[in-house]
Amino acid sequence: MNICRELAIVAGLVITMSATGFSQQKAIVPKNWQLLSYGTDSLYGVDAEKAYSELLKGKKGKTVIVAVIDSGIDTTHEDLRDILWRNPKEIPGNHIDDDGNGYVDDVFGWNFLGAKDGGTVKEDSDEATREYYRFRKQYGNPDSALQKDSKEYVYWTRLKDRIQKPSTQAKTDYKMMLKVQENLLKCEGILADYLKTNDFTVEQLDTLRSADQDVMLARSFALRLLHSTNEEGTTYQALKNDLAEYVKELKRKAEYTGGEPEDKRATIVGDNLNDINDRFYGNSDVQGQFAFHGTHVAGIIGAIRGNGLGIDGIADNVRIMAVKVVPEGDERDKDVALGIRYAVDNGAQIINMSFGKGFSPQKQWVDEAIRYAQEKGVLLVHAAGNDGANNDEVENYPKDTFNDGTEADNMITVGASGNGRTGSKIAGFSNFGKKEVDLFAPGVQIYSTVPGGNKYGSASGTSMAAPVVAGVAALVLSYNPDLSARQLKQILEKSATPLPDGETVNKPGAKDEQVSFSELSKSGGVVNVYEALKLAAKTKGENAKQNRARMKAMSKD
């Protein structure tokens, strides 16, 4: 188990050791809550099950290809392997570029973090740190070398603020996980005294019953953390040790004072990072050793429905293309740009991008790739970020505004909403913005596929909300294939629904401040596939003519 990858899972488990905390844990929220409805289930789901039973019953949609640009996907997973995109022109394992696209053996997609010898970049630095040291090398002392009224100086000031002061997020994460660690140690003291051992498993705790409320509180907290690891047989001591290592790493980040990071990517991948035309690098291993994030995202979109296994995805007729560009650290602009182009060139109709960063030194490359996707009619879905920040005031890249001030009409930015039954209506970590965020979607404790072949787990983040929207978009497009990307975006925004039980919500990132939900995004709503399908059915698709022409050409062949 790697506790680092489980931060999103355990972050929501910081509870106080009190009777109130225990009663809150007992509220029942179904694992598939994001698919459900407020009307029948009292949950802020997207009405997917309602749509299938009332609007889509007996109908068959067309297959939609959705690219997941992320950390990689477990291609062996029982709930994913049959819905993975497979390059029809590529022969697996023959070490030949059969389709001539420049990527050898790209059967499931491509790994832009890969080395020729099969290795992969696992960790990379953050973009702010990379830019900070680039400026210092270029200008020596930027404070004296740069004109105070120049764009470069403003940029340098932002970099200094980010690097020379510990980031708010790092300090917040450290403080939060210290609380988790503190409560876990309290649990250990209570449980060790009761069980007469300082180590225990899920099985032992499952059978524990006591009239002592403190014992049952400790049992409940420890069980939640143990279950969150998604590892069978994990013991308390193993969990405690991994958590201690993770807290140590968070402390290092929170107390970071400087030092240029090692550029591992240049050594492993070997491409020219400053040349966007140096495109044919990487390898075909789209899973690698750290595919938790991408695997979880893929399952939310399209895990096989109705097979009796772990979960049902939102869309019932998709093929998931794996494009690996995200390490543990910030993704590179070049990889993102080429990842988008790869997905578009290989037939993706929707691209999910559950990543983001505050600096984008080669933004023009990503802009050009987004324009390329726009020209080809591909919808991009992007996570708004998890800093509880206003994206109208802070940068979060990629974004739909180009350097020339124009905006892409094929990109949706997504914030994270809660389940409506427990916790906040809107995720406290979610970024927002009346101009820069388009809509919200379920993003708290979303249960989905995780690496391991047959494993599942919950995670939270706008990274989970974005694939909910990508899945909704795929489902709508599947049954309305003549819609353009522009129309698809408009339909999802126009059909987004207000909160059913009141507009007032806690403002993300703020303590005890309430705002109107409609002020947190352009649409002022949560994505709703039932309403989107109804609106799509009334919309004449802009791609009808070209789709007929394509079908006619195919029939002649």
Beginning-to-end CA distance, first to last residue: 52 Å
Strand-residue proportion: 5-15%
* Rg from Cα: 24 Å
Poorly predicted regions are 1-26
Name the helix and strand elements from N-terminus to C-terminus, one letter apiece. Answer: HHHHEEHHHHHHHHHEHEHEEEEEHHEEHH
Q: Biggest sheet, open or closed, and with what strands and sense?
A: 7 strands, parallel
How does this model look, in words?
The protein has 557 residues and is of the alpha/beta class. Helix content is 38%, strand content 10%. Strands 2-3-1-4-5-6-7 form a seven-stranded parallel beta sheet, with helices on both faces. A hairpin with a 7-residue loop joins β10 (504-506) and β11. The active site is at residues 70, 293, 463.
What are the salient characteristics of this protein?
two-stranded antiparallel ribbon, 7-stranded parallel beta sheet, alpha/beta, 10% strand, 19 helices, single chain, 11 strands, 557 residues, disordered N terminus
